[in-house]
């Protein structure tokens, strides 16, 4: 039997009884939007992240976008302001910026960690720079200490795209607690996944939290009173109830992901396959286990022939996407090389040791074409 990249059915089947009970509770309540399930989940998730506020929204893109939108409403950002962002990220990091008529300034990653390189960030700061969007790519914390230093020195907002890094921590602080605000996604395949779309903004800033809470709900603070031209992007009661169940198991799931990652890192020794480099165990929650190979497509075909499904995160960098013709002129050689070489191996909370060993064996038997 093939080893799937990620088995969502198996992941949720572990908690089927609890999930069904939570769903039944919502169905029977007759209250489906902005109710007690959401309020409780927001409290739980803020507590988990170690911040004062969490605001449930419709998805991760909206979480990031609403942070920037709220800062614009509060006068901290203006049309045309520049936001520094890693060149190698999922498109949503860019879309949140451009959706708000802000200008993404993509910078190169540190090829060892895949995360944004602080020296490149420092070099990219100019007179119109107002914010840094850090992305904890693949589940590993970006270098938040040096990014926070830069942000402070240059009076910049520091925003975390934490969509892949629920629970990643450093010195007892978790993803979402390092910047001025952070956006999370609860897309089903994320480390904390709903059974549909979902997201959250987390922050210690009460003014920002209130503004995001109003903006996600038609710009309204009290029903039918509209202070801002908001949007409709709410985490519904059903997803909030399901996420309350899944949050309880997040740390166990992260521990299992770390176990699989350790197994891969101990088992895969191949001259043509470069393993991911980790700063420390706690800083990585292994949303993805990403290797590099100069002959990436050949490796993917080889794994497929051995029944191992893999994926590429991501095949085309944002600045090369058709959607962003204005960015096509940028030269980001490190970013572009990574997009040619990265391959994500199966990893997840239900992947068994024997599956991991088959993945390892398939990697070990790869004969790299010259
Ligand atoms: C998934 C993801 C998002 C967007 O989240 P959605 O819930 O899919 O909108 C944003 N940034 C990164 C890095 C992601 O992986």
Automatic annotation (TrEMBL):
Keywords: Aminotransferase, Pyridoxal phosphate, Transferase. The keyword Plastid does not apply. This is Aminotransferase. Signal peptide: none annotated. Gene3D superfamilies: Aspartate Aminotransferase, domain 1, Type I PLP-dependent aspartate aminotransferase-like (Major domain). The lineage of its organism: Bacteria, Pseudomonadati, Pseudomonadota, Gammaproteobacteria, Lysobacterales. Belongs to the DegT/DnrJ/EryC1 family. GO terms for molecular function: transaminase activity. It comes from the Bacteria.
């Amino acid at each position: 039997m093939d080893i799937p990249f990620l088995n969502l059915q198996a992941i949720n089947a572990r908690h089927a009884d609890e999930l069904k009970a939570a769903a039944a509770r919502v169905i029977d309540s007759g209250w489906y939007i902005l109710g007690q399930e959401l309020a409780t989940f927001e409290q739980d998730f803020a507590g988990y992240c170690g911040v004062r506020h969490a605001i449930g929204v419709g998805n991760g893109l909206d979480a990031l976008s609403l942070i920037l939108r709220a800062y614009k409403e509060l006068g901290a950002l203006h049309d045309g302001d520049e936001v520094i962002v890693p060149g190698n990220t999922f498109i949503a990091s860019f879309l949140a910026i451009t959706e708000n008529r802000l200008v993404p300034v993509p910078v190169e990653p540190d090829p060892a960690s895949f995360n944004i390189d602080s020296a490149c960030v420092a070099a990219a700061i100019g007179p119109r720079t107002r914010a840094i969007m850090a992305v904890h790519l693949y589940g590993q914390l970006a270098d938040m200490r040096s990014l926070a230093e830069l942000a402070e020195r240059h009076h910049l907002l520091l925003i975390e795209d934490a969509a892949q890094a629920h629970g990643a921590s450093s010195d007892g602080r978790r993803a979402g607690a390092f910047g001025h605000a952070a956006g999370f996604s609860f897309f089903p395949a994320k480390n904390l996944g709903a059974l549909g779309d979902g997201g959250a903004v987390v922050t210690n800033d009460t003014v920002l939290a209130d503004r995001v809470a109003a903006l996600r709900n038609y710009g309204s603070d009290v029903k039918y009173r509209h202070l801002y031209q908001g949007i409709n992007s709410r985490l519904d009661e059903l997803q909030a109830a399901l996420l309350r169940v899944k949050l309880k198991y997040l740390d166990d799931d992260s521990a299992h992901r770390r176990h699989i990652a350790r197994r891969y890192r101990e088992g895969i020794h191949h001259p043509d396959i470069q393993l991911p480099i980790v700063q420390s165990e706690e800083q990585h929650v292994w949303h993805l286990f990403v290797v590099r190979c100069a002959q990436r497509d050949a490796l993917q075909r080889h794994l497929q022939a051995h029944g191992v499904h893999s994926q590429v995160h991501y095949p085309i960098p944002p600045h090369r996407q058709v959607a962003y013709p204005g960015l096509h002129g940028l030269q980001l050689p490190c970013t572009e090389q990574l997009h040619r070489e990265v391959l994500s191996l199966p990893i997840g909370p239900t992947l068994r040791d024997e599956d991991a060993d088959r993945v390892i064996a398939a990697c070990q038997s790869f004969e790299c074409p010259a």
